[in-house]
Write a structure and sequence with these properties.
Blueprint: E1 2-5, E2 11-14, E3 25-35, H1 37-43, H2 46-49, E4 59-60, E5 64-72, E6 83-87, E7 101-105, E8 109-111, H3 118-121, H4 125-136, E9 145-149, H5 154-166, E10 169-173, H6 179-185, E11 188-190, E12 198-203, H7 211-218, E13 222-230, E14 244-247, H8 254-265, E15 273-278, H9 282-291, E16 297-301
Parallel strand pairs: 9-10, 9-12, 10-11, 12-13, 13-14, 15-16
Antiparallel strand pairs: 1-2, 1-4, 3-5, 3-7, 3-16, 5-6, 6-8
Helix pairs in contact: 4-5, 4-8
Length: 303
């Protein structure tokens, strides 16, 4: 079974057998996968409108998963039965992570460490990897200040935890209801953007979808010589004179994912779950994510 969409706002559970794993690949029986904002963009046809997706056929949903290795291609060292997490990227494939079985590249997998519940590991992948890769582009903290928009959201929550852990002076644009979380992770909450500037601005919200706020309120918060990081690779980002502009779009990286899972097992970053549903009720999770306002990921379990 695989959850797919034609980009018309609806989803369907189709029967579609995966191919056997090729060299360097593994077959994974999925224990849990998550619904992310990118899935909503696929379901609602946004990626097709933007020209990101060229497919005219139904496409699979889900970018990150945890599961058990059940078959492996040539050259793969992962043991059969290993519980691994993986991130797969793409909006045109006929099947994604929201399925009962997937085939992924072994190099994109990371072992789930002892002591970390696989269902918790499922919510780490795509969002924590995006946050980590965004922070990597600006290098060590070096005493710099950092603003994260959506500072308690899916990507933003991991970004503030990782940044605070590494030594940034972290500020988060977030709701009053997020105060407890931000206090615990060591970030200072702000209610609104003003004349204050920051050495690094990470737009995890992302406000890029709101052109007025993005141009008039967010971009002026980047200090001279500072860095702006956008996380929506398919959206154009204007250049800022005297500042550095970076755009990241999550890339599978098994080694880095393993590091993040270890940080979760040690309590450095927090796996937050908004709810769990079976694969047969995945549309419920999609509706929740579309409405927004939740904290943590919606987890989908095939059985």
């Amino acid at each position: 079974n695989v959850l797919r969409t034609s980009g018309d706002g609806t989803v369907a559970l189709d029967s579609l057998e995966p191919s056997p794993p090729a060299a360097g690949e593994v077959t994974i029986d999925v224990l849990a996968a998550t619904v992310n904002a990118v899935d909503i963009a696929v379901v609602d046809g946004v990626v097709r409108e933007l020209g990101v997706s060229k497919s005219t056929e139904p496409v699979g949903l889900g970018w990150d998963l945890v599961g058990r290795v059940t078959a492996r291609g040539a050259g793969v060292a992962l043991a059969i039965g290993s519980v691994v997490a993986a991130v797969r990227v793409g909006v045109d494939a006929p099947r994604g992570a929201l399925a009962d079985r997937v085939v992924v590249a072994a190099r994109d997998c990371a072992l789930v460490p002892p002591g970390l519940d696989p269902l918790d590991a499922a919510v780490i992948g795509m969002n924590a990897l995006t946050a980590a890769q965004a922070l990597q582009v600006v290098g060590p903290p070096a005493g710099r200040s950092l603003l994260v928009t959506g500072g308690a959201g899916g990507v933003g929550g991991f970004a503030v935890e990782l940044a605070a852990h590494s030594g940034f002076d972290v500020h988060a644009l977030a709701r009053p209801s997020d105060q407890e979380f931000l206090d615990r992770v060591g970030a200072r909450r702000i209610d609104a953007l003003d004349a204050t500037t920051f050495d690094v601005v990470l737009d995890a919200a992302p406000l890029q979808y709101d052109a007025t706020r993005f141009l008039d309120e967010l971009l002026p918060t980047v200090a001279g010589g500072g860095d702006f990081i956008g996380v929506m690779g398919w959206l154009p980002t204007p250049q800022l004179p005297g500042r550095h502009v970076h755009t990241v779009f999550v890339e599978p990286d098994g080694a880095e994912l393993g590091r993040l899972l270890d940080l979760a097992a040690r309590g450095v970053i927090t796996p937050r779950t908004a709810g769990r549903v079976p694969l047969t009720e995945a549309s419920t999770a999609i509706d929740h994510v579309r409405r927004g306002g939740h904290r943590g990921r919606w987890v989908v379990q095939p059985s």
